[in-house]
């Protein structure tokens, strides 16, 4: 009894859904039909009577295609849980320039409102998704729409008095039998025809690369500024003071040899300190051992210096691109430092290897876990830097540990 | 002593030669590239060779490789490696054959000329001399750190100086302690680490370094 009841519930729900799908799918065909009816009513022979219907058809189709697609997407997600990405072009932010004008990515406008309106129209007009939406609006009535029409039309046939009893019973049977299934056609159709096209995927990729390039340029400029500041405040200043000490010592040599000697010792200490600073700076830019020995040995050197008991297993191809080596080296350095600092681990294992998709670096520790990338944190920064190489960072760090971090970079050398 | 100096930067090479000659030692040959270094080492068989790590033609670790190759040909050939940076990895490679006659220092070490020449002489005599920076890294790395937890602070610093290659007498001078006090510390720390202190010379240094370097 319960099963039959459940079936009726499903049939009822399916019937409502089929009606909704049919209504959405037939919206645009209805506009066309209305336009044709209007044209015929005004006089099929007179070309002037078709002007308004053509305008109605064009405007209606263009204007309704996006709302229809949005509705279908929302229905599919709500009923089946399948998310179909829309891939609509996003408007870039509008900025006011020092001249007082507003720049919206296409042109200058006097007010913010004008800039936003102009931008919305242009983004909407030039969006490659428009073509896909139009195609979908054309495909929908003939596929999911036609199938979804079955239950409602069966009921209509049963309700109308103009047919004989057998036909009306048959209509009711068809309606009831296919009610739970008729709307399901919507999902495959939406997945097939409503996802972003290749051109849109390409456009997205271009936008992504543009953003990455901007990121990389900003990061590079910041890095150069940091190096300049370090040199200016560190080594340069120390060398000036060293020269001063030596000049004073030279002057005092004859009159006060004891003070001259002290000054020279001071100068020597200054030279040692500036060398130490320069060494740290160089290590931060490009660790010498990486240039000398390549990634595997550089990571071994890193493991030896780490306060954790660290083992390294390496199976890497020869001749990796230096930028990728450097990115992976600094990634391992950061992950290892995190393991020591935040995870309170005592042991770590680093595995460097490759699989068919590219290079894979794993850093595992026995710490307390719970690592979550925060918006401005080190892990998020690491992800951003890896993104420049299409690299990814997977984090597996349950509360209580252990933590396993996996860095993947598509291989450029192969 | 007969010394070979291998360094690619002219100013540094010249300065080094002058410093060494100022202490009454003789520089028999100089080299400016990796292959030249290997040839000079094998041809002159010096009492000790001062070798830079990074050298032409590749500007990678040519000097270190030449030194290691020469030591494979002539086991125990004393080399004193100078570098702008120190790596435990390179220290391990130099010590790997266990025959001594190895020095590994930052270039800054020449600022203290007395200690530099002293270390150079120690290496020439078949001893071992390590930069304090190398030893500090060695003592603080994962495995060592755990093993050395039992040591007192004073024993820890004695162990460090011992690993640098200093004799009990020299350690005593650095720490302002008597030689007998130092030997008391060494006996106790060797006991804690489970090593036997049957020698106070180079074998002891090598044993300590091997202990610290073992995985």
TrEMBL record, chain A:
CDD domains registered for this protein in UniProt = HATPase_UhpB-NarQ-NarX-like
To which species is this protein native?
A: Streptomyces finlayi
Q: What is its EC number?
A: 2.7.13.3
Task: Show the GO MF annotations.
Answer: ATP binding; phosphorelay sensor kinase activity; protein dimerization activity
Q: Name one GO cellular component term.
A: membrane
Enumerate the spans annotated as Histidine kinase/HSP90-like ATPase domain. Answer: 323-413
What taxonomic classification does the UniProt entry list for its organism? Answer: Bacteria, Bacillati, Actinomycetota, Actinomycetes, Kitasatosporales
Query: Is Transferase given among the entry's keywords?
Result: yes
What is the superkingdom listed in this entry's lineage?
A: Bacteria
**Which UniProt keywords are present, listed alphabetically?**
ATP-binding, Kinase, Membrane, Nucleotide-binding, Phosphoprotein, Transferase, Transmembrane, Transmembrane helix, Two-component regulatory system
Known catalysed reaction(s)? ATP + protein L-histidine = ADP + protein N-phospho-L-histidine
Q: Which residues cross the membrane?
A: 20-44, 50-69, 134-159
**Protein known as:** histidine kinase
Q: Which InterPro entries match?
A: HATPase_C_sf (IPR036890), HATPase_dom (IPR003594), Sensor_HK_TwoCompSys (IPR050482), Sig_transdc_His_kin_sub3_dim/P (IPR011712)
Q: Which PANTHER family match?
A: NITRATE/NITRITE SENSOR PROTEIN NARX-RELATED, NITRATE_NITRITE SENSOR PROTEIN NARQ
From TrEMBL, chain B:
Q: Boundaries of each HTH luxR-type domain copy?
A: 144-214
Q: Name one GO biological process term.
A: phosphorelay signal transduction system
Q: Where would I find the Response regulatory domain in this sequence?
A: 2-122
> Ribosomal protein as a keyword?
no
The record's listing under InterPro entries reads: CheY-like_superfamily, NreC/VraR/RcsB-like_REC, Sig_transdc_resp-reg_C-effctor, Sig_transdc_resp-reg_receiver, Tscrpt_reg_LuxR_C, WalR-like
Entries under SMART domains matching the protein: HTH_LUXR, REC
User: Which keywords, in A-to-Z order, does the entry hold?
Assistant: DNA-binding, Phosphoprotein, Transcription, Transcription regulation
Molecular functions (GO terms): DNA binding
**DNA-binding among keywords:** yes
Which positions does the record annotate as the modified residue 4-aspartylphosphate? 52
Residues passing through the membrane, by range = none
UniProt-listed PANTHER family = TRANSCRIPTIONAL REGULATORY PROTEIN NARL-RELATED, TWO-COMPONENT RESPONSE REGULATOR
Listed name of the protein: DNA-binding response regulator
- Its source organism is Streptomyces finlayi
State the organism's lineage. Answer: Bacteria, Bacillati, Actinomycetota, Actinomycetes, Kitasatosporales
């Amino acid at each position: 009894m319960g099963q039959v009841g459940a079936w009726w519930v499903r049939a009822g729900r399916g019937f409502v859904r089929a009606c909704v799908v049919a209504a959405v799918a037939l919206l645009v065909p209805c506009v066309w039909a209305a336009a044709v009816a209007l044209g015929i009513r005004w006089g099929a022979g007179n070309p002037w009577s078709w002007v308004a219907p053509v305008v109605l058809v064009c405007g209606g189709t263009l204007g309704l295609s996006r709302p229809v697609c949005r509705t279908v997407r929302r229905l599919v997600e709500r009923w089946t849980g399948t998310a179909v990405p829309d891939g609509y072009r996003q408007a870039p932010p509008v900025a006011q320039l020092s001249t007082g004008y507003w720049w919206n990515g296409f042109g200058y406008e006097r007010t913010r409102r004008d800039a936003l309106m102009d931008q919305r129209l242009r983004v909407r007009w030039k969006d490659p998704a428009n073509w896909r939406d139009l195609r979908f609006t054309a495909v929908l009535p003939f596929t999911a729409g036609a199938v979804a029409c079955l239950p409602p039309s069966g009921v209509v046939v049963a309700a109308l008095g103009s047919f004989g009893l057998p036909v009306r019973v048959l209509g009711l049977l068809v309606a009831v039998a296919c009610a739970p299934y008729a709307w399901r056609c919507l999902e495959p159709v939406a997945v097939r025809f409503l996802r972003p096209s290749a051109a849109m995927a390409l456009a997205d990729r271009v936008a992504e690369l543009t953003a990455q390039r901007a990121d990389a340029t900003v990061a590079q400029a910041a890095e150069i500024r940091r190096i300049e500041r370090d040199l200016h405040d560190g080594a340069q200043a120390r060398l000036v003071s060293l020269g001063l000490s030596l000049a004073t010592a030279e002057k005092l040599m004859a009159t006060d040899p004891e003070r001259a000697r002290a000054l020279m010792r001071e100068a020597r200490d200054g030279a040692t300190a500036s060398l130490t600073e320069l060494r740290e700076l160089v290590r931060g830019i490009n660790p010498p051992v990486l240039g000398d020995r390549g990634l595997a040995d550089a990571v071994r050197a890193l493991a030896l210096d780490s306060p954790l008991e660290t083992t390294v297993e390496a199976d890497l191809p020869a001749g990796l691109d230096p930028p990728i080596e450097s990115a992976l080296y600094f990634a391992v350095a950061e992950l290892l430092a995190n393991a020591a600092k935040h995870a309170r681990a005592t042991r770590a294992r680093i595995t460097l290897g490759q699989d068919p998709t590219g290079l894979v670096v794993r850093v595992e520790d026995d710490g307390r876990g719970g690592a979550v990338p925060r918006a401005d944190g080190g892990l998020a920064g690491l992800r951003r830097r890896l993104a420049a190489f299409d690299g990814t960072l997977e984090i597996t760090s349950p509360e209580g540990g252990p933590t396993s971090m996996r860095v993947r970079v598509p291989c450029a050398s192969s | 002593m007969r010394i070979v100096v291998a360094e690619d930067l002219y100013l540094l090479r010249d300065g080094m030669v002058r410093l060494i000659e100022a202490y009454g030692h003789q520089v028999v040959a100089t080299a400016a590239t990796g292959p030249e270094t290997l040839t000079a080492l094998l041809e002159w068989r010096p009492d000790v060779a001062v070798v830079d790590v990074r050298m032409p033609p590749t500007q990678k670790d040519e000097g270190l490789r030449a030194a290691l190759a020469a030591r494979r040909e002539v086991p125990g050939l004393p080399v004193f490696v100078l570098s702008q940076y120190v790596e435990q990895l390179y220290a391990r490679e130099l010590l790997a054959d266990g025959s001594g006659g190895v020095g590994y220092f930052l270039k800054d070490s020449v600022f203290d000329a007395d200690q530099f020449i002293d270390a150079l002489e120690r290496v020439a005599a078949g001893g071992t001399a390590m930069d304090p920076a190398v030893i500090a890294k060695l003592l603080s790395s994962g495995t060592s750190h755990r093993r050395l937890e039992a040591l007192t602070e004073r024993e820890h610093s004695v162990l460090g100086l011992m690993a640098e290659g200093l004799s009990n007498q020299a350690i005593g001078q650095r720490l302002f302690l008597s030689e007998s006090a130092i030997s008391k510390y060494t006996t106790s720390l060797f006991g804690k680490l489970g090593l036997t202190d049957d020698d106070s010379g180079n074998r002891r240094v090598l044993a300590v370094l091997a202990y610290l370097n073992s995985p």
